[in-house]
């Protein structure tokens, strides 16, 4: 297991299997709250909250926006765009930070970084436990304003995994903490990773700070090991999916109740960043640039759509998703992106941004035949927008558990 430069470096660059598994495990328990400390310590391992968010549909949307940053490696700017759209759509007011540029930037950054770092840490905890390392090594994250205990007392500590220190100070141990832990097979290996096997914890390392109710070096409600209470479940879930971005991005939804999966799918397709990514994926093909990743999810199939598939094929498609692949985007460009005729116009990359809307609000899925080359079932979804009719056709891929876009045209 490679060492990381910090708990935040690379957290959102690639999907991280255990990290995604941990966060997806919380999607079945969205907790309405008024204050940030309404959930305490390991309660955050199994529940998702945003302080002040109390309505179920608002929480759904916020959870999906955060999940997308974790599972698909989205930037803070993309999260802010989604967050602002969610707040406007639900008319949510009175949240901490609202009303000033600085306050809103701080609030979105806090939500983004806190969920990223705790989910990352929980995933690492599951990896470390499974790795059977002799020693765990505490490393300071290199923040510009280091906490005294983290830099001068804890950095370089090499302790066995069952030491009580880890149940209190497995990082992050406070807001913005970027410390991290790596595993070592021996004292020599620990040294190579920046550890100091001779370093000892001082007497009273776990004494309580009366101002926070937590030991010195840990913030209030941060004196626990994120993910420790669910580590075996996280690791078992992660074993089902290998490190392929697309599969991780759609995985680990089996434990979420079907009704909630529907709500999460709707929330996902309402995020501006999902439409933006579909447009960018198409623009890449239109520009002739190298093809991107093998697949991009457009969110889960809803239960009513799965029922239509079951009616046509007598199969269970309840955990399938809709997806885009570069080859099929290329097909759409070649067949429908040029030389429009009297009954259809050229499809453009901007039209691809409509796909989430078409999936969400279009006609009932109906089987219209089989694909010419692969002889796979093809389903159609149609939506009229303005004076035009958008027709999408999706190919059923059983092994990948997806409906991938096969054809897309716009009738005048």
Description of the molecule:
The chain is α+β, with helices and mostly antiparallel strands and 412 residues long. It has 2 domains: 17-238, no CATH class; 257-411, no CATH class. 40% of the residues lie in helices and 15% in strands. The chain is built from 15 helices and 12 strands. It has helices at residues 17-24, 56-72, 76-90, 101-131, 148-154, 165-169, 187-192, 231-238, 245-250, 258-270, 272-286, 303-313, 326-336, 349-352, 355-361, and strands at residues 135-139, 158-159, 180-184, 208-209, 214-215, 296-300, 321-324, 344-345, 366-370, 377-385, 388-397, 402-411. Strands 6, 7, 8, 9, 10, 11 and 12 form a 7-stranded mixed β-sheet that branches. The chain has a 3-stranded antiparallel β-sheet with strand order 2-1-3. A two-stranded antiparallel ribbon has the order 4-5. Strand 11 and strand 12 form a beta hairpin. Helix 2 (56-72) runs antiparallel to helix 3 (76-90), helix 2 packs across helix 10 and helix 4 packs across helix 8. The longest helix is centred in the first third of the chain and has 31 residues, at 101-131. Mean pLDDT is 90; it is low at 1-12. This is Phage minor head protein. Residues 63-181 form the Phage head morphogenesis domain. Pfam families: Phage_Mu_F.
Spell out the key features of this protein.
412 residues; alpha+beta; 2 domains; seven-stranded mixed sheet; three-stranded antiparallel sheet; 40% helix; Phage_head_morphogenesis_dom; Phage minor head protein
